[in-house]
Amino acid sequence: MFFKKLMTSSAVFLGLALFFLTPALNAPLTTPNSGESLSATNLQAASRLATPNPNLKGKPLKVWECVSSWYGEDFDGRPTANGETYDMFAVTAAHPSLPLGSIVRVSNPKNHRSLIVRINDRGPYVDGRGLDVSYEVARRLGFDQSGLAKVRLELLEVPTRPASTHPE
Q1: Which CATH superfamily is domain 53-157 in?
Q2: What's the pTM?
């Protein structure tokens, strides 16, 4: 009995320690290129956005394969479908039909790299392609030079719709 309580309390302590000591969770919000802090308005907007969690576990809601391309400089700084400003160095992607804000794991089977990204835009608009990722995602997955890759998609999370505020 004592051993069981000791193990439980050790697991809880370890979990709390990891939570508070993980640098990524405590890192300040900065822009990728300039290192400047985000403004108060952008900070509020960023805090409302879903952020990919690399530790997301569990069974995916759906799994499929498709051809992915990437988009970068030509679109950098332009508005995305959800109203954000496109950042080619962010970990985001465009999908033709997944709900905006969905979280997917994109895996490159050729090099076994994967990354969890958030859908914030619509596209691609080229036949035969099922996903358009930011330049940063393509770079990390290793297909920035080739431009295209067959990828595996795992739908991990779909955003919940806010409750209606209309009186009935």
Answers
A1: RlpA-like domain (2.40.40.10)
A2: 0.64
